[in-house]
């Protein structure tokens, strides 16, 4: 079991962010000890690491919420790949839209 400070170090996420994720129900409720301090196990750290990864890839909190709720940690690698593939498709669509905007701007500049 880990304290929030240790979990923060292991997941490379500030303690305040972990508390925020718990407050907005992005992560499952964290277990507490007799003194009411949060205690994290390895599965909690895995989820925090996954969230950190998704955030670095530009996923929104809401997309992460949906993805986390669909993940069965026993099949995490397979699920993570599917989630990342879906996110990649979304980014490619956004790139297509941005490229069309750039093309329109370039046409207007030439005029």
From TrEMBL:
Domain HTH merR-type stretches = 1-70
Question: Sorted alphabetically, which InterPro entries does this protein's record hold?
Answer: DNA-bd_dom_put_sf (IPR009061), MerR-type_HTH_dom (IPR000551), MerR_fam (IPR047057)
Report the domain of life of the source organism.
Bacteria
UniProt keyword annotations, A-Z: DNA-binding, Repressor, Transcription, Transcription regulation
Gene Ontology MF terms:
DNA binding
PANTHER family in alphabetical order: MERR-FAMILY TRANSCRIPTIONAL REGULATOR, REDOX-CYCLING DRUG-SENSING TRANSCRIPTIONAL ACTIVATOR SOXR
Q: What is this protein called?
A: DNA-binding transcriptional MerR regulator
Query: What is the species of this protein?
Result: Sporosarcina psychrophila
């Amino acid at each position: 079991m880990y304290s929030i400070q240790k979990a923060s170090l292991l997941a490379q996420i500030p303690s305040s962010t972990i508390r925020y994720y718990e407050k907005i129900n992005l992560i499952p409720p964290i277990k507490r000890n007799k003194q009411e301090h949060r205690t994290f196990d390895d599965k909690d750290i895995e989820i925090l690491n996954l969230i950190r990864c998704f955030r670095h890839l530009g996923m929104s909190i809401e997309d992460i919420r949906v993805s986390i709720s669909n993940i069965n940690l026993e099949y995490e690698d397979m699920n993570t790949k599917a989630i990342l593939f879906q996110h990649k498709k979304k980014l490619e669509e956004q790139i297509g839209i941005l490229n069309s905007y750039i093309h329109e701007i370039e046409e207007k500049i030439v005029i």
